[in-house]
Amino acid sequence: MTELYYDAAPNATRVVPPLHGPRQYPTNKPAQVYLFGTCVVDLFFPEAGMDAIHLLEREGIAVNYPQGQSCCGQPAYTSGYTEQARQVAKAQLALFEQDWPVVVPSGSCAGMFREHYPALFEADPALLRQAQALAARTYELAEFLLHVCKVELSDTGAPVKVALHTSCSARREMNTHLHGRALLAQLGNVERVDHSHESECCGFGGTFSVRLPDIAGAMVQDKTRQLIETGAHQVISADCGCLLNINGALEKQQAALRGQHLASFLWQRTGGAR
Amino acid sequence: MNTQARIPAVELPSDFRSRAHQALGDAQLRGNFRKAMDSLMAKRASAFADADEREQLRALGNAIRARALSKLPQLLEQLETNLTRQGVQVHWAETVEQANAIVLNIAQAHQAKRVVKGKSMVSEEMEMNDFLAARGLECLEADMGEFIVQLDHEKPSHIIVPAIHKNARQVAALFQQRLAVEYTEDVDQLIQIGRRVLRQKFFEADIGVSGVNFAVAETGTLLLVENEGNGRMVTSVPKVHIAVTGIEKVVENLRDVVPLLSLLTRSALGIPITTYVNMISSPRKPHEQDGPEEVHLVLLDNGRSQAFADGELRQTLNCIRCGACMNHCPVYTRVGGHTYGEVYPGPIGKIITPHLVGLAKVPDHPSASSLCGACGEVCPVKIPIPALLRRLREENVKAPDTPHPVMRGQGSKYSRKERLLWNAWARLNSSPALYRAFLRLATRLRGLTPGNVGPWSQNHSAPKPAPRSLHERAREHFATRGNRP
């Protein structure tokens, strides 16, 4: 019966090794960057994208926003429509011709560039090289501000208590779950309060929240309850997917609490005009 | 005691979504799981206090399993050769039917009437209890958790802690009703009651059945870990011992076992080692005082070679069955093990079950995840569970008649309409002019956003597009000042 197993394909794994581990950051601030705004920010949270631009410009960096950009392809990718995701990813891949860093105000879309684009283009050597190059210069906004810009923020706002929700992709794909904390810690009048089960998913998961609304609903109800229980005045997150989920649920529950993107919060707290 | 009487158990709905819905509405069940999973997560965390050590050990565990799988056929043959030489009879089963037939043959050869079983998930795959009961053999679970769920005519809800969905009060009522003992909620007393019943059964049993944690090819050793001693009893007291296991459980040598064992017990229960580590390599030898006269090993495939045949899906077989993925899973924690409706619940269940029973039987399994990655983060052998879930989604939405299927039941979620929608979505998002036109339309017509947007509205108010998109605002921003900082 063992001969059954001899027919098996060789152990050619399709999985690209993850890029986890301490990341090496450029020692000098670049003169130019690209901003990939993400489709959720584009349509629902444009102010977060604008505030990301403002924060980068204040650091003396010229921001380039390719008008050809749309979505990173993640919704189709995580739904199993790999071909459709590849088609969209290929269009994004062509946008970043110069060797400038690509800054993304979302852990999840940055994770798509960094972790999944190389896997998507594995079969095409030319596109794979391009995808790997993009992956290597993709940064989540918080890590870019902290480690590349080495920002020093000074708080101009009134005392406030905030709860920070970190997206699962920021935490587990981008390893940037501590960066938001570090940035908030620079703001003297901001008290960060931690919620129970902080590392647990808010239940968004892209199409998951509409495919299995009962389970996703239980998750977001727990998450919003835990956030409310902290007594925070405001929720901060660096991912607009989570914010769409959390804010939508809070609004439905008629709760007063709302979430804001980290970029907007940082910009407003440090004297930035709207 | 009356374990055979059919008492109408609570009927679970027949599909995953309805079972999930029911479980989510059961406050007692949700409370039991949340409390238990929080405790198991805390235990694991304290057992891996040194993150560097943990990551090195996980990398090693992954390498050991990958190496074993890379030479699985040779290792299985080596295992068979060594065990056979040592007097263990090795049987191969491609299906659960074959595996059950092998067990029944052995039982009949010994005119066996009573079987006592240590904890074994493979025997759950075989539904061995029901199979033997239907043929007049009593098959009693000897693991305390399994004993409890068997008494209540249930299935395990967790692979390590099978009765975790019950609290002490529920067990107390069950024991009072089925074992005719005095009601007590004292956990120690409950365990003593269970042990008293089981103790007698070990000595009456004709056959002991066990699972296997690691089958060591080089030495022909079956390694079995447990905390209650039932594993030691079932493998040494009855005259015949039958071990059942999946073909993927083989490792190359004893050295490989050391790190895997540490990963297993720390990930599962946060303990440095189990109370019992049984190593079985032969029946009782002439000079030995105890042990079974016959030892059999049944090696079951049951769809595992389908996973093995694909380089990516093969990683599913790395699993050492610690259950850490379910302990950390936000979905499992909320819906509990029975919602999955299959032997293996939780994240590992979602990636292994489609190979065992075909995707068509569990079409919702791959989708029932937010891909949060908690499972992959804690897996002691680094199975990329989220990536495999995504891959199963891909197989699930393929056209059912796609040539060269890699899985049974491919395309179980195929919908031509949904595919066309994604095609349109891809077109929209890969042509900038079309996408910008869409943005203009969505932002201009934001007042017309419907209040009810399908399933999203169950938990959220409808999202409203911003008055102007980032595309527009950025264009304006850079048009007036260029992109100088």
UniProtKB/TrEMBL annotation, chain A:
Top-rank taxon, per record: Bacteria
* InterPro entries reported for this sequence: Cys_rich_dom
For this UniProt entry, which residues form the secretion signal?
Answer: none
Protein known as: (Fe-S)-binding protein
Domain Cysteine-rich, first and last residues per copy: 34-114, 162-246
TrEMBL record, chain B:
Which PROSITE patterns does this entry report, sorted A to Z?
Answer: 4FE4S_FER_1, 4FE4S_FER_2
The record's keywords, sorted A to Z, are:
4Fe-4S, Electron transport, Iron, Iron-sulfur, Metal-binding, Repeat, Transport
Superkingdom of the organism of origin: Bacteria
Q: Please name the Gene3D superfamilies in this protein's record.
A: Alpha-helical ferredoxin, NagB/RpiA/CoA transferase-like
Region Disordered: list its residue ranges.
Answer: 450-470
* Pfam entry (one): LUD_dom
Supply the SUPFAM superfamilies for this chain.
alpha-helical ferredoxin, NagB/RpiA/CoA transferase-like
Coiled coil stretches, renumbered: none
Ranges for domain 4Fe-4S ferredoxin-type come to 309-339
User: PANTHER family, from UniProt?
Assistant: LACTATE UTILIZATION PROTEIN B
| The name this protein goes by in its record | Iron-sulfur cluster-binding protein
Organism of this sequence: Pseudomonas typographi
